[in-house]
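Hey team,

Filing this mostly as a record. A colleague (T.K.) asked me to run one chain through the structure pipeline before their review meeting, and I want the input and output archived in the tracker in case anyone asks later how it was produced. No errors, nothing strange. Just documentation.

Input sequence:
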Amino acid sequence: KTASDKLRQISEGRVTLYDFRRTYAVWLEAAGVLKSHIVIFMGHSSLTMTDLYLKQDVSPHLIADAEKLAGYIAQSS
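Output structure:
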């Protein structure tokens, strides 16, 4: 059996090796590593593939950014 098969068996199908890759990519992004560097660390040939790993719920970030923008506009008025 491959490592992936063993992990799937041990976790009863809840965890895959791609979950670890996804976590690694998200942590790199959260740490502020440039996406162009994350592409290299992940071994991808394009940003498109890396973006699939980084796809996550961004709504908290969007809310925070909207609040920053509202504060900036209020301050500028």
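Quick notes for T.K.: The radius of gyration is 18 Å. Residues 59 and 65 are 10 Å apart (CA to CA).
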